[in-house]
Replication initiation protein
Amino acid sequence: MENEENRQKLDLELTGHSNSRLSVAQLGLLERISVSFDRITVVGGFIPERESWVKRHVESNNRIDLRDTGYDRFKCHALDNKVYVEYNRKQAQSMGRSEIRVEFNPNELCEEENQFVQFMFLDNMRDKHFSRIDLAFDVPVNLEDYYVMSDKSVKQTVFYGRNNKPETKYFGVRDSERYIRIYNKKKQLKEVKEEESEHDHLWRIEFELKRSMTNKWDKCFDDLHILQPDYLSIESFEEQAKIYYLMNEISAWSKIERSTKYRYKKKIKEISEVNLSDDLREVLSGQHKRLSEELHSYITISHHDKLYDFDFEL
């Protein structure tokens, strides 16, 4: 009994949580994890017959803030800066890239605003595809003491708060095809938007996907593990110390051989009763149809015979 109490006490000192743990699913939080697209960038070209129509309305619509314009170009913000559109046919031809780029956050658009973006811009484009998709999970769990690890070799950057606990973690590099952010969403809402979350804890796990990774959005975290390792399940104190050092000193991983890295990563997964990534995959599976249909709606070939429930002001 005394050994068990000592074990739990040491576990609290090392990990910040008790050794008696339950998975997110067991805690009844699974249905409270939300998943959505937090940013979308659609690129393509104008349907030739629609170019002049769009340009004329961009220059006259009071919901659009025109920043630059010319014979075959324009830049604008729409819907109170919720949407950014850039079009430059000459530059696209000279640089071999798409003519028009439409950027927006679906979470910030109401249904009527979403329809406005569709009708004004997306429905008038051809050869549409995604150059960027941000997939975001909002998790009502305190991720300060979770250990995040990838099976792949990726750069990791961690920023700590005043309590010396992690507040933001980055995996990868910004211009890569996949860039991962994990941060304290509750704190961000309070400091940036002056909003209070109803949850005791709220963290965001966000995948910024570019180029070819936009086609693999539903597989973007198959190599990622968000874990609660149980150090004390390892009998050898020397082995405990090595794993603790690797998990708390990022640079330590660069000092060991590849085969040793594989062995210790495997060991960390084995001693973790909870892998939050499993819960994220379950949530994504349940929402996959809805998310797929949403993406399809942005790039589907459309016709201008649709009726929309908004006033198209000129």
Summary: The mean pLDDT is 86. The helical segments are 2-15, 51-60, 89-95, 111-120, 185-193, 237-248, 258-270, 276-299.
